[in-house]
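Hey L., structure's done. Input below.
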Amino acid sequence: MVKFGNIFGSKKDASDEVKVTIGKKDPAERRALARNTDTSGETLKHLASDGDSEIRREVAHNRNTSSGILEELASDDEWKVRYEVARNHNTPSDIVEKLCGDKDWRVREGVAWNEKASGEILEKLASDRREVRYAVLMNKHTPIGLVKRIELENEREEAERKRSDTEDLREIRGRE
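Output:
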C-alpha cells in the first residue's frame, strides 16, 4: 500500500516512484504525483504521456516541469493541457508564441496570463475575444498604451450591447 506521505512529501528516487506509484492504476495517486513539486523530472516525463488528460494537465501545471516536457505537452489534443502549458513560467518563449495562435480561445487566454508573453504577443491577443483581452489587461507586463486601448474597446462593446438590448426591448414592447 502506498502512503500518501510518500507521494506528497520528500523527494524520492525516481525509479521507486515509478515502481510504487505510476505502476498503480489509481488516478488519484498519479494526479497527486503529477502536481507534487518534489516529483522527479523522470517521473513527470513518464506522467506526461499518461492516458488520463487530467494527469497530463497536472504535469503541465507543475512549476517544476521542464521546458522539454512542456514543449511536448504543447501539442496535446486536450485544450486544458495546452492551457496549463501556456500559463507555466517554464514554457519556452517560442512555445508561448506558438500557443498564441491556438485554435482554442482558452489556450490563448492562458498565453495572455503568462508573464513571459512578449509585448508583441500581448498586442496580438488584445484583439481577441473579451476573456482573452481581460487576461492581457491583468498581465503586469502589458504596456499602459495597450491597457488604455483595450479598455476603450471594452467600453465600446458595452455601449453597443446596451444599444442592442434597448432596441430588442423596444421591439418586444412594440409587439405587445
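The CA atoms of residues 89 and 114 lie 7 Å apart. The mean pLDDT is 87.

-- N.
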